[in-house]
Amino acid sequence: MTANNKYKCVNCGEPCSALYRTYGPSVLKLTKCVACKGIVDKYIEYDPVIVMIDLVLMSKEAQRHILYNTDFKTFWKLFIILVMLETYAVWRSDSLFSIAVNTICDIKSSYTINSTNINLPINLSVPESWRNNCRGWVQDSKGDDSDLFIWEKDFYVQFISTFSGIMIFITTVHVLMNVLQSFATNNRVSSKRLLQAFSLANMSTLFALPMLVWGNTDTPPETRLVHYLLVFVYSFIVFCNVFTVLYESPMLITILVLIASNSVKHYTTFHMTPFLRGFVT
């Protein structure tokens, strides 16, 4: 995409030079795409609420509008907020990742508010090299008179671990997409646009908020598991759509890359958290 074609058609992704043309102080005409003959970006006339609804409905047209036809300058604020939200969920042992760790490592109690453990019909054998990391996820119970600094320090540790996992995820996606570029179109993606795309897709994790806010210790583990599974599936589909739009790659390649990247991310977080806790202790 050249400097003269800095926008993209929200329907087909064809680069274009302008979204509209002005023919006077009060006359404005939307540009038509030379490829699909449709309006390049219908969303420039829409209310932001309509755009947000279409984003929730996983519309690729709305995603292209945000990524290519708007400034989206505040993406870094959104990025930080969502990293903090994910950190809080894992630190609170109230996320799908925490449920998986608690179940695999057979953790039934924690110093945090929730420690959801699912009883599986089969016995999982944890590799010996992972057992020390499992013990690193177990924290001693603390009473109400505990030093708040200990809680705060552990939150910062979890933030560093979660942030490291997210950066590994973004890097893995970018590297694998570039490696597999021969199977896709030759579309170069800048680091800024990559972070914008991640922030846009990661907004899907906000659907975990109801359980984080209104869930309590009386909520059955199965209910938490179903809720977080639904949020994960929805989030995965959103990430597939956004990165397909960003890299213009086939959906199958995007799915495989996201599976690999998520595996690397969670592997990093699983091993990083016990290491950092042991380092700062």
Automatic annotation (TrEMBL):
Family classification: Belongs to the ARV1 family.
Endoplasmic reticulum found in the keyword field: yes
The entry's keywords: Endoplasmic reticulum, Lipid metabolism, Lipid transport, Membrane, Transmembrane, Transmembrane helix, Transport
Location of this chain's protein in the cell: Endoplasmic reticulum membrane
Function comment: Mediator of sterol homeostasis involved in sterol uptake, trafficking and distribution into membranes.
Keyword Transport found: yes
A matching Pfam family: Arv1
A GO biological process held by the record: regulation of plasma membrane sterol distribution
Taxonomy of the source species: Eukaryota, Metazoa, Ecdysozoa, Arthropoda, Hexapoda
Originating organism: Parnassius apollo
This protein's GO CC annotations: cortical endoplasmic reticulum; endoplasmic reticulum membrane; Golgi apparatus
Predominant cellular place of this UniProt entry's protein: endoplasmic reticulum
Membrane topology according to the record: Multi-pass membrane protein
Listed name of the protein: Protein ARV
Listed transmembrane segments: 74-91, 155-176, 197-214, 226-247
PANTHER family: ARV1 (PTHR14467), PROTEIN ARV1 (PTHR14467:SF0)
